[in-house]
Amino acid sequence: TEEFITQTVYGAQVVVTNPTSSRQRLDVLLQVPQGAMPVLGDKTLASRHVSLEPFETLKIEYHFYFPEPGDYAHFPVHVARRESLVAFAQPVRLKVVEEPSQVDRESWDYISQQGEGPQVIEFLQKNNVESLKLDRIAWRMRDAAFFKQVVEVLDARFPYDDTLWSYGLVH
Fold first, then answer.
1. Helix and strand totals (H; E) in the chain
2. Are 16 and 26 in contact (CB under 8 A)?
3. Nearest to 96 by CA among 127, 126, 73, 122
4. Cβ neighbours around 136 below 10 Å, total
5. What is the enclosing helix (H) or strand (E) of 91?
6. What value does the CA radius of gyration of the chain take, rounded to a whole number of Å?
7. 163: which residues sit within 8 A by CB, 6+ positions away?
8. Is the pTM of this model over 0.85?
9. pLDDT tier at 1 (50, 70, 90 boundaries)?
10. pLDDT digit string (tens) for 131-160?
């Protein structure tokens, strides 16, 4: 993506596939970007020995955050078999900022936190509510009129969220 935000945890997924009909024993080298700190028990640099059966796919994840803004190099995954490089991703530069330079004012992340009540209701009516983190609007549910509108929209569209519906006890 274009920008990374400081003090935000990011995850990277590496997918390794064996497209052959024989078992592959591989070494996968993973490295968090320069300037980043590993989190969730991950390491700055890690090598994983994996054995992939024919046509098997393996997903490996690692997590990190950037404590400071800057422009950092990232040397993505390298895969070796019998100490010979067989696959790698191209290096990239990552721009890290304290605040995003562009904000998507049409996204659920923005509307749920910054939008007006009618914008939230309209978003819920027009978008796939199954894929949304509905509890992001829980702070708005103390307003009885807003609560009623949200429940009506969601009831018609069938998703259920414990946090939102629990405000029924308040009202």
1. 4, 10
2. yes
3. 73
4. 15
5. none
6. 22
7. 134, 135, 138
8. no
9. low
10. 899 999 999 999 999 999 999 999 998 888
